[in-house]
Amino acid sequence: MDRAEFRKKLDAYFDENREALLADLCALVKIRSDREPALPGKPYGEGPAACLAEAMKIAEGHGFAVKNYENYVGTVDLNDGPKQLDILAHLDVVPVGDDWKVTGPFEPLVKDGKIYGRGTADDKGPAVAALYAMKAVRDLGVPITKNVRLILGCDEECGSSDIAYYYKQEEEAPMTFSPDADYPVINIEKGGVVGDLSAFWEKEDCLPRVLGAKIGLKVNVVPDKAAAQVLGFTAEQLAPYLDAAAKETGTEYSLTEEGDGIITILCRGEAAHGSTPEEGNNALTALVHLLAALPCEGKAIEAIRGLAKSFPHGDGNGKAIGIDLEDEISGKLTCSLDLLTITSTGLQAYFDCRAPLCANKDNVVKVAIENLAKNGITMKDAEMRHPHHVSGDSEFVKTLLRDYEEFTGEKGFCKAIGGGTYVHHLKNGVAFGCSVEGVNNRMHADDEFMELDTLFLSAKLFAQVIADLCA
Known about the structure:
By secondary structure, this protein is of the alpha+beta class. The protein has 11 helices and 26 strands. The termini are close together.
């Protein structure tokens, strides 16, 4: 089929199937599918299993052969030809906050050219776009001799144990892409490490003091709010510290008097993905910045000040702990302190580091351990996740870039990211879509959305890729 003719047919096909695609996406978004405790036959809990069952029902209803791999992943096959292309998407989502304004997180809403709801961008929207790309290729009679398999996972956000389970049973396809990142093509995914930090002290009764805190959702989510309890202050005494910290961090602080002299300090910032801390404003480090400035005494405040010194607010590259590496191919290291618990006898914290190709255990983990120790913070030894790199000169990547340029009119190029996708451990896997430059779709944050133009463009683009790679 002539490429121009195929493009016209794709445009008409998706005009005709627009409402059906959106209805299928809404059916998935309505199901809360963040990871829960395992149940018999449901390794990630009830929500992910229910969402996978719905996805299998939808795909089977469209006439595809499906298979459920014990609720770890589900697969959808285009045909029974030789294995050629895998498309890896996921149905699990990150937990939700309580500040959604446009709609509820599991109440999908089409408004102003966008579809809102948890998972619309990450990654239920891209998954449905891929499913409909396969459907379009089949329904339009494109001559395909090799198979495309859509693989729908349920644990991408919490370690990708689902895909590890799948690939113990199945071989990877000669080519794989995951529509779970950005356009044009991501052929480098940074390595990384999760830093496990602690400090301990004897219980103290000095006044004033910090009583406790429990901050953060996950180690790969920059928190947009943080709260801590203090004792021995009045609201009037704390006010100037809040004003100063607000000017220094660009976040907002407020106080709540709880009774018995306890005051809760709340900080509000801006959430972001842990791999791109510069896109948010970390409420955790902003609150630690404030706490460190308070006129307290004792071992607890010493540890908090050590943490503030190690992760000063606005340092998203690990400069203060000596790991701010960079190379020309994969860019800068990022480092985000995303989880913190403070009790009467210690603190526990975790940072998320995404490291470029030049990074290794010696120049990241060992250096961080040494510099944190100077500030009174202990970091456990940790192994680094190796980076992933697929050559931009491969025919696979060249095809993706050519099709991207044809459908968008934009220049195609390869780039590196800090996030790790499903393809991180695959020999010939890259990330391809579905976010576009200049659009913050609030992935991992409140009011997540997918632009409808991007959603349908992606479906058409994926159909062209399938036609090119699987003929």
